[in-house]
Specification:
The termini are far apart. This protein is globular. It folds into 2 domains: 125 residues, Aspartate Aminotransferase, domain 1, CATH 3.90.1150; 237 residues, Type I PLP-dependent aspartate aminotransferase-like (Major domain) (Aspartate Aminotransferase, domain 2), CATH 3.40.640.10. It contains 15 helices and 13 strands. The longest helix is centred in the first third of the chain and has 15 residues. The structure holds 4'-deoxy-4'-aminopyridoxal-5'-phosphate and glutamine.
């Protein structure tokens, strides 16, 4: 008990009273405690290209160690503009329309803080990444949750249309999608554009998995669709693309009018982002092969993981993009009564493989017997996990 009459910490009134520790941290801690192979939290367990490390070292030795310009190192903004134009056909002005951020997480929060007002409504499509709703709540706006179609996780445009109203300020769209690994089609993008045409709704497009799209599909960046690009903030992350999630560098791109507001918040939020890493990324982006090779690189891991799950009784959902594979355990009699969280806990503590329950991506914890694995791992890691899963789940003929 505190007996000092002066030293008293005021009880804060929480801005986010319902928020606890993220499921990713919880499952990683549980995995570590139980020596489980961690296929829960999404991050690679392999090293990035040594050329990228060399480029950071070079940048540091060249003296790029002080604050860069607020919007980011010009060479990196130029490289992002060139890459976006080459891939998606839309030219962002690097001076006014691109800002380098401390990962996608900061870009998303900054976009929302800059563009959303108290009393507004912002649509999210559930299941969704766990930072979206708290970000929206911090602005005093209301989160309007529209479910993706149960089972397929495709956007349901009837329901999105019904959710649009006079107070709708923005909609968050994430393709390739975390956690379901679905990828929006060109037709779906057109339908979104048509729905938003009569409105002033802003799209916040979370495209952090833009370079992990499989089987010949095209990533449908909003920047491919001029009508959508004109009303969108696009967010991406070098952490995902170059296997350096801990570096926390990403970017936002948007029409100048939106980016001007974004920068007002950015400059008093982080002000600037790690200088030598920005220089290194700018140099590294000169070669497109690392990101153009990424679909094949990850598709091979996906295929190895999917093949290894055969015979476990788990139903594999499609993995069209991202580095996630969702599985349905409803056909396992011993487990189908378990909640997703309980199944993940059992997998982590008894089988030795960590996964993430899909229910964690829904506000009301919807249960559908689906959990998410991350396959951004070395082959040896995937094989070790598969062996444990097969031993625990192998379907016996008897
Ligand atoms: N959005 C989605 C959908 C993600 O999966 C992640 C990765 N955790 C982020 C945003 C955040 O990316 P970053 O690590 O660059 O902040
Ligand atoms: N994006 C990663 C995931 O979905 C991890 C993010 C995090 O740890 N906050 O697993």
């Amino acid at each position: 008990m505190n007996t000092d009459p002066v030293a008293r910490t005021p009880q804060p009134q929480s801005r986010l009273p319902r928020v606890g520790t993220t499921i990713f941290s919880v499952m990683s801690a549980l995995a570590q405690e139980h020596g489980a192979v961690n296929l829960g939290q999404g991050f690679p367990d392999f090293e990035c290209d040594p050329l990228l490390i060399d480029a950071v070292t070079r940048a540091m030795r060249a003296g790029h160690n002080q604050y860069p310009p607020m919007a980011g190192v010009p060479a990196l903004r130029d490289a992002v503009a060139a890459k976006t134009e080459a891939l998606y056909g839309h030219r962002y002005d690097p001076d006014r329309e691109i800002t380098i951020t401390a990962g996608a997480t900061q870009a998303l929060l900054t976009a929302i803080l800059a563009l959303v007002h108290p009393g507004d409504e912002v649509i999210v499509l559930e299941p969704c990444y766990d930072s979206y709703a708290p970000n929206i709540e911090l602005t005093g706006a209301t989160v309007v949750r529209v479910p993706l179609t149960p089972g397929s996780f495709r956007p349901d445009f009837e329901r999105i249309g019904a959710a649009l109203g006079p107070r709708t300020r923005a909609i968050l769209v994430n393709t390739p999608h975390n956690p379901s690994a679905t990828v929006w089609t060109a037709d779906e993008m057109q339908r979104l554009a048509a729905l938003l045409r009569p409105t002033d709704v802003i799209v916040i497009a979370d495209e952090v998995y833009e370079h992990m799209v499989f089987d010949g599909r095209l990533h449908q960046s909003v920047s491919r669709h001029p009508e959508l690009a004109a009303r969108s903030v696009v967010v991406s992350s070098f952490g995902k693309t170059f296997h350096v999630t801990g570096w926390k560098v990403g970017y936002a791109a948007a029409p100048a009018a939106l980016m001007a507001e974004f920068r007002k918040v950015h400059q008093f939020n982080v002000f600037t982002v790690n200088t030598p890493v920005q220089h290194a990324l700018a140099a590294y982006l000169a070669d497109p092969r690392p990101y153009l090779d990424l679909p094949d690189f990850y598709a091979r891991k996906r295929d190895r993981f999917r093949a290894g799950l055969a015979g476990t009784g788990l139903t594999l959902l499609p993995s069209e993009g991202s580095y996630f594979q969702c599985v349905d355990y409803a056909k396992l009699p011993a487990h189908r009564e378990r909640t997703e969280a309980a199944f993940c806990r059992w997998l982590t503590t008894e089988v030795g493989v960590a996964a993430i329950p899909l229910s964690a991506f829904y506000e009301a914890g919807f249960e559908q017997c689906v959990v998410r694995f991350c396959f951004a791992k070395r082959e040896a890691t995937l094989d070790a996990a598969l062996q444990r899963l097969r031993e625990a789940l192998q379907q016996r003929a008897d």
